[in-house]
Amino acid sequence: MDWPNLQKYATENESLGTAVAKNRIVWMGDSITEFWIATDGDFFKNKPYINRGISGQTTSQMLLRFRQDVINLKPEMVVILAGINDIAENTGPISLENILGNITSMAELAKANNIKVVLSSVLPANKFPWRPDLQPADKVIQLNTMLQKYCKDNNLAYIDYYSKMADSEKGLDVKFTNDGVHPTLSGYKIMEPLAEEAIAKAKKN
Fold first, then answer.
1. Rounded distance between C-alpha atoms, residue 36 and residue 50, angstroms
2. How far apart are CA 28 and CA 13, in angstroms?
3. Residue 74 neighbours by CB distance under 10 Å
4. Residue 177: beta bridge partners?
5. 0.90 surpassed by pTM
6. Which residue among 27, 47, 63, 143 has its CA within the 20 to 30 Å range from the CA of 95?
7. pLDDT grade, residue 40 (50/70/90)?
C-alpha cells in the first residue's frame, strides 16, 4: 500500500531530471493545491511552477513524500499549503502541535537543502462535507496562529489567505467556494496575488 502516494508524480519527477532548476518553485499541498492547476491553469502556464498537490493528504503523508516530490527536484523554493485534512482527521486524530511539527519538518528539510520556504495559512473552514461531526473553525484559527509565529520566529514568508477569505461565521466565504472547503476560480484569484507577493518577499530574503 502506497500510503503517501509516492507513485502519483514519480514518472513526472523522473522526466524533470536532476539538474538544479533556477527559479523553479514547487507547490506542495493537498486538493487545494492539486485542483488549482485544473481550475486556473493560466496561473501555472509558462512559469517555472511545479504542482505537487495530492487530494485528501495530511501533513504526515506529505512529509513522507517531501524528498521525492520537492527536494529531489532541486527547486529554488517550495510553497507549502497543508493542514486542513489533518484537522478533518483524514488519517486519524492528530494534535495541532504535531500538525505544526510535520509542516516545520518540511520547512527544515527544505532549508537544509538550500530551498527557500513559503508557508501558507490554512484556508477557513467551519464544516467538512465528509466529516459533518467535526467543528474545525477554531482549530484552523489556532493552527494559523502557530504557523504565523513560526514564520515570524524563523524569518519565513507567510501567506495569509485566511483573513482575505473568511466570512463572519469563520468559514470560507460562499463567494469563493461551492462546498465550504475548496476554492472556486474566484477563490484562487484572491489567492494568486497573495502567493506571488510572498514568493517575491522570499526571494529577497
1. 12
2. 13
3. 18
4. 183
5. yes
6. 27
7. very high
Calpha distance 118→161 (Å, rounded):
13
How many C-beta neighbours within 10 Å does residue 171 have? 20
For the chain, helix, strand, coil in percent to 5 are 50, 15, 40
Consecutive H or E run containing 198: helix 185-204
Q: pLDDT digit string (tens) for 123-178?
A: 999 999 999 999 999 999 999 999 999 999 999 999 999 999 999 999 999 999 99
| Mean pLDDT score, 10-17 | 91
Measured distance CA(175)–CA(193) in Å, rounded = 17
Q: How confident is the model at residue 18 (pLDDT cuts 50, 70, 90)?
A: low
Nearest to 22 by CA among 75, 78, 70: 75
Residues 38, 36, 43, 137, CA torsion sign: positive
State residue 195 phi and psi, 5-degree precision: -65, -45
- b/e for 134-160, b at 16 or more Cβ within 10 A? eebbebbbebbebbbebbeeeebbbbe
| Cβ–Cβ < 8 Å for 151, 157 | yes
At 121, the pLDDT band (50, 70, 90 cuts) reads very high
